[in-house]
TrEMBL record:
<protein>
    <recommendedName>
        <fullName>EGF-like domain-containing protein</fullName>
    </recommendedName>
</protein>
<dbReference type="InterPro" id="IPR049883">
    <property type="entry name" value="NOTCH1_EGF-like"/>
</dbReference>
<dbReference type="InterPro" id="IPR001881">
    <property type="entry name" value="EGF-like_Ca-bd_dom"/>
</dbReference>
<dbReference type="GO" id="GO:0005509">
    <property type="term" value="F:calcium ion binding"/>
</dbReference>
<dbReference type="InterPro" id="IPR000742">
    <property type="entry name" value="EGF"/>
</dbReference>
<feature type="domain" description="EGF-like">
    <location>
        <begin position="556"/>
        <end position="598"/>
    </location>
</feature>
<feature type="compositionally biased region" description="Polar residues">
    <location>
        <begin position="659"/>
        <end position="669"/>
    </location>
</feature>
<dbReference type="InterPro" id="IPR018097">
    <property type="entry name" value="EGF_Ca-bd_CS"/>
</dbReference>
<keyword id="KW-1015">Disulfide bond</keyword>
<dbReference type="InterPro" id="IPR009030">
    <property type="entry name" value="Growth_fac_rcpt_cys_sf"/>
</dbReference>
<dbReference type="Pfam" id="PF07645">
    <property type="entry name" value="EGF_CA"/>
</dbReference>
<feature type="region of interest" description="Disordered">
    <location>
        <begin position="657"/>
        <end position="677"/>
    </location>
</feature>
<keyword id="KW-0245">EGF-like domain</keyword>
Length: 677
C-alpha cells in the first residue's frame, strides 16, 4: 500500500495551533505531517485587528502578526502624538521640553496654543505685521510719512505703536504731524494800536479792523484827527483837542452850562429843563423863548420832540455779506457813517466796505507752506509768495517759491581739494551751522589745513612696484599721478608685471636661454649658457670643434685651414664635435705621418753648402734630419732638401711659425749630412 501524501509546513507557523501528529520542531524547522494525521478542520480564529474596541490607537494602522505574542502590530502614532501605536499621547509642542520645532514655527512675539496632534500660533501683536507662524516684523510707522514735511520722524519700536514726530520747522506751529505757518507770530498786523491777527484755514492770515479813532488796513493804522470834522463832535462853543484814537472836548464857555461832549446851553431860559429841547440839540434863548436846534447827524426827529438814533446799518456801505454794526450817534462823530463794517467773508480780504478775493486763503495761495502769501492785485495770480526760508530754494523748480526744496549745499563744490561734500538737511542747518559738510580727502591725498595734497606713493618702497630683492637699483619704474600711481614695465631683459613680479626674459632652462643649440649631426650640442638674475641669459663659447658666436651661430671649425700637412699631402678635416685634422700618406720617396715627411735616400755629403744655405735662407723652413755644418750640430733635423737637384724636384714651403723656430744659417760651412742619423 502506498504511503499517504505528506505536506511541508513551516514550524514557525505552528506555535499558535497544535499539531496532532508528529513532533513540533524548533521555530523555522520543517515538519512533515501525513495528511491523515490532521484533526478535523476548525474555523480560523478571528483577526485581533477586528475586535472591538480596536487594539490600536484610532487612526493607527493595525496589522495581523501571528508571530507576535499579541497577534497584531500597530503602526506609528499620528503626527503630534507620541507612543507605541496602541497608546498615543499628545505632544505639547508649545512646551520648552518639546524641543524647538514649535518655538521656531511661532514667532517669539506671538502666542503658541497646544492642540491635539499639533499647535496653533497666535496673530502678530499690534505694531507688527506678518503671520505668527512665519515672522512678525515691526511696522515702520515712518514709511507712510505721517509727519509734516521736513519734520523728523522716529518709529516707536515694538511693543510701542506709532511714531514720534519732531518739532515743526521754523515758522510753523503744531505737533509735528500737523504744522501750521506762524503767520501771526510775529504779527504782521499793527501793534500800536494793537490789531488782532487771525490765521486762516489752509494757511494765510488776516488782520482785524483798526480800533475806533484809527483808519487803515489793519497792518498800518493811522490816527484820525477827529477835530477836523464837525469839531470832533464837540459842541460848537467848545474846543476840540485830538488825541491818539480819540479827542477831548473843552468846557462850555462862561454863561453856558452843560458839557462840551453833549451841549452847552444858555444859563437863562434854557437853564430850566434845557428849555424843553432834546439834550442832543442846541437850546438858544430868544425873545420868543428857547429855540431848539436840529438833531445832530446820526439822529432823526427834531429838537423839540426828541432825537432818535438812526440805525446806521439801514444804509449800510458794507460789502455784501459783511456784518454791519450800528454806531451810537454820540460815538459817530468819528466816522460819520452811523455804522461799522465787520471783516470780509472767508476767502476775501478788505476793510469790510471793499472786499476782494483772498488769493492766499486756499492752500496758502499756491505758495509753499513754508513761505508767506501776500495778496497783491498787481502781481501774477493776485498774490506774492515770500522767499523760501534759509536752507531751501526754488531754483530747482523755477516756480517762485511755490515749491521750496531743500537746497543742495554742495552745489558749486565748496569743499577744497576734492574732498567729498555731504549736504546738510535744511531742518538741521541751524543746529549744524552750515549747509554742507566736507568729508576726508580722497584716497591718495593727505589733508593739509582745509585742502588736500597729493601723496607721492613712489617715494616709499617704489610705490609697491617691483624691486629686485638683492639690488634696489634694478626695478620697475613708478610714476606718481594725482591720487595714485602707475607701475611701468619690467626692466629691459625681464618680463612680467611691474606691479607684480619681474623675472628674466630668458633662462638657460628654457631653449638654452636663446643661445646656439645644434641640430642634425650636432643635435645635443649647445653653446654654454649662464643665467642672469636681472636680465637675459648670457651666451658663452661655442662647443669643442665649433667656431663662431654662442649667442648667434656656431659652425664646424675647418682644421685644414692653416694647411698643417706636408706639402702635397691631403688634409682631411675632423667633423665637429671632433676637432683637428688628419693628414694623408707622405709622397713617394718620403716617409712620415703625413704632417712630417722625410726623404728616403742614402747618406750623401753636402757639396754645395752655399747652395743649401741659399735654399734655407730663401725658404726659412728648416726641417729634416740632422744637418752637420762645419762639424757642429745646428739642431736641424730631417732637412727636406739635401742638394740642389733634390730641392728643385721638391720645392720647400713656408711652415707654420709655431712648428719650428727659424734659424739663420749665415756663415754655413762645409759639413756632412747623414740621413736618418
Amino acid at each position: 500500500m502506498d504511503d499517504p501524501p505528506s505536506i511541508f509546513i513551516n514550524s514557525s507557523l505552528l506555535n499558535t495551533r497544535p499539531v496532532h501528529t508528529g513532533d513540533i520542531m524548533a521555530a523555522g524547522a520543517a515538519v512533515t505531517v501525513p495528511v491523515s494525521g490532521f484533526p478535523p478542520p476548525h474555523a480560523p480564529p478571528p483577526s485581533p485587528c477586528t475586535t472591538a474596541p480596536p487594539p490600536c490607537y484610532p487612526g493607527v494602522t493595525c496589522v495581523d502578526a501571528l508571530s507576535t505574542t499579541r497577534g497584531f502590530l500597530c503602526g506609528g502614532c499620528p503626527t503630534g502624538l507620541d507612543g507605541n501605536g496602541t497608546v498615543c499621547d499628545d505632544v505639547d509642542e508649545c512646551a520648552a521640553s518639546a524641543g524647538v520645532d514649535a518655538l521656531l514655527a511661532c514667532d517669539p512675539l506671538t502666542t503658541c496654543t497646544n492642540l491635539l496632534g499639533g499647535f496653533e500660533c497666535g496673530p502678530c501683536p499690534a505694531g507688527t505685521s506678518g503671520s505668527g507662524d512665519t515672522a512678525c516684523v515691526d511696522i515702520d510707522g515712518c514709511a507712510t510719512a505721517p509727519c509734516f514735511q521736513d519734520t523728523l520722524c522716529e518709529d516707536v519700536a515694538w511693543p510701542g505703536v506709532g511714531v514720534v514726530c519732531g518739532q515743526c520747522p521754523d515758522g510753523y506751529d503744531g505737533d509735528g504731524r500737523v504744522c501750521e505757518p506762524k503767520q501771526c507770530e510775529p504779527g504782521p498786523c499793527s501793534l500800536d494800536p494793537f490789531v488782532p491777527c487771525t490765521t486762516l484755514p489752509g494757511g494765510g492770515r488776516t488782520c482785524g479792523l483798526c480800533p475806533v479813532g484809527y483808519v487803515g488796513d489793519g497792518v498800518v493804522c493811522d490816527d484820525i484827527d477827529e477835530c477836523e470834522t464837525n469839531n470832533g463832535g464837540c459842541h460848537a462853543l467848545t474846543s476840540c483837542t485830538n488825541t491818539p484814537g480819540g479827542r477831548l472836548c473843552g468846557d462850555c464857555p462862561i454863561g453856558f452850562t452843560g458839557s462840551g461832549y453833549s451841549k452847552c446851553y444858555n444859563s437863562t431860559q434854557c437853564a430850566e429843563d434845557y428849555g424843553g429841547c432834546d439834550p442832543l440839540v442846541e437850546c438858544v434863548d430868544t425873545s420868543q423863548g428857547p429855540r431848539c436846534g436840529a438833531c445832530p447827524a446820526g439822529y432823526k426827529g427834531d429838537g423839540y420832540l426828541g432825537c432818535v438814533d438812526i440805525d446806521g446799518c439801514l444804509e449800510s456801505t458794507c460789502f455784501p455779506g459783511v456784518p454791519c454794526e450800528d454806531i451810537p450817534a454820540e460815538e459817530d462823530g468819528i466816522h460819520g457813517t452811523g455804522h461799522r463794517c465787520g471783516a470780509c467773508s472767508t476767502g476775501m480780504i478788505g476793510d469790510g466796505i471793499h472786499c476782494t478775493d483772498d488769493m492766499c486763503f486756499w492752500l496758502n495761495g499756491g505758495c509753499d507752506p513754508s513761505v508767506a502769501c501776500v495778496n497783491d492785485a498787481a502781481a501774477p495770480g493776485g498774490r506774492m509768495c515770500g522767499a523760501c526760508p534759509p536752507g531751501y530754494t526754488d531754483e530747482f523748480t523755477g516756480q517762485a517759491s511755490e515749491q521750496c526744496l531743500d537746497a543742495d549745499g554742495c552745489l558749486g563744490a565748496p569743499c577744497p581739494g576734492g574732498r567729498m561734500c555731504s549736504d546738510v538737511a535744511a531742518v538741521e542747518e541751524a543746529a549744524f551751522g552750515a549747509a554742507y559738510m566736507c568729508g576726508p580727502c580722497p584716497q591718495g591725498f593727505l589733508q593739509v589745513g582745509e585742502g588736500c595734497v597729493d601723496v607721492d606713493e613712489c617715494a616709499v618702497d617704489n610705490g609697491g612696484c617691483w624691486v629686485a630683492p638683492a639690488d634696489d637699483r634694478v626695478k620697475a619704474p613708478c610714476v606718481n599721478s594725482p591720487g595714485g600711481y602707475t607701475c611701468g614695465s619690467c626692466p629691459a631683459g625681464m618680463r612680467g608685471s611691474g606691479a607684480g613680479k619681474c623675472v628674466p626674459a630668458t633662462t638657460c632652462a628654457v631653449e638654452n636661454g636663446g643661445c646656439w643649440v645644434g641640430d642634425g649631426a650636432a643635435t645635443g650640442l649647445a653653446a654654454s649658457c649662464e643665467d642672469n638674475a636681472y636680465g637675459p641669459a648670457q651666451c658663452g663659447e661655442c662647443p669643442l670643434g665649433f667656431e663662431g658666436s654662442g649667442a648667434s651661430s656656431c659652425v664646424d671649425a675647418d682644421g685644414c685651414g692653416p694647411e698643417p700637412c706636408f706639402p702635397g699631402v691631403a688634409c682631411t678635416d675632423v667633423p665637429a664635435p671632433g676637432e683637428g685634422f688628419t693628414c694623408g700618406s707622405c709622397p713617394e720617396g718620403f716617409r712620415g705621418d703625413g704632417e712630417m715627411c722625410t726623404l728616403c735616400r742614402p747618406r750623401v755629403s753636402i757639396q754645395y753648402t752655399t747652395a743649401v744655405q741659399g735654399i734655407v735662407k730663401r725658404t726659412g723652413w728648416h726641417r729634416g734630419e740632422r744637418v752637420m755644418i762645419g762639424g757642429e750640430n745646428q739642431g736641424l733635423d730631417h732637412p727636406a732638401c739635401v742638394n740642389i737637384e733634390v730641392c728643385s724636384l721638391f720645392p720647400p714651403r713656408k711652415a707654420p711659425s709655431s712648428r719650428f723656430p727659424s734659424t739663420s744659417l749665415s756663415g754655413v760651412q762645409q759639413g756632412k749630412y747623414f740621413p736618418g742619423g
